[in-house]
């Protein structure tokens, strides 16, 4: 399997979502969220171009794509395909200001 790297911000996002879900939906849901996130990362590593392209202003993020976590459609994975796998940049809730957080083009 191609390697999957997670940026620090993505790891922080996962922890925050886990804590929120554990407090508001229960530990079982929070643990299932983490399992589905990891499974989604594996799917992306195997087929990195399956996510939708995201037009960003910053040249270092020009290859950014997004994909939803399976069974958690309101949680979006923002990632960059790499020649040797994928880099998970952020995992954000769809209702958050992810446009601003990522510096989207208008």
**Got a strand count?**
5
Order of SSEs: EHHEEEEH
Architecture (CATH level 2) name: 2-Layer Sandwich
Q: What is the oligomeric state here? A: single chain
Catalogue the unreliable spans.
none
Look at the structure and give the mean pLDDT: 90
**Total count of domains:** 1
Contiguous helical run count: 3
Ends apart, CA distance between termini: 36 Å
Under CATH, the topology is which?
A: YaeB-like fold
Within CATH, the superfamily carries the name RelE-like
Query: Could you describe the largest sheet, including whether it forms a barrel?
Result: 5 strands, mixed
| Share in β-strands | 25-35%
What is the highest CATH level, the class? Answer: Alpha Beta
The geometry reads as globular
What structural class results from the helix and strand content? alpha+beta
Side-by-side strand order of the widest sheet: 1-5-4-3-2
How much helix is in the residues? 25-40%
């Amino acid at each position: 399997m191609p390697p999957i790297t997670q940026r620090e911000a993505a790891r922080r996002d996962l922890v925050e979502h886990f804590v929120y879900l554990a407090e508001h939906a229960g530990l079982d849901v929070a643990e299932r969220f983490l399992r589905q996130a990891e499974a989604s990362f594996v799917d992306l590593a195997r087929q990195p171009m399956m996510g939708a392209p995201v037009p960003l202003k910053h040249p270092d993020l020009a290859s950014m794509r997004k994909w939803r976590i399976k069974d958690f459609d309101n949680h979006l994975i923002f990632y960059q395909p790499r020649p040797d796998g994928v880099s998970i940049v952020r995992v954000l809730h769809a209702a958050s200001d992810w446009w601003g957080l990522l510096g989207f083009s208008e």
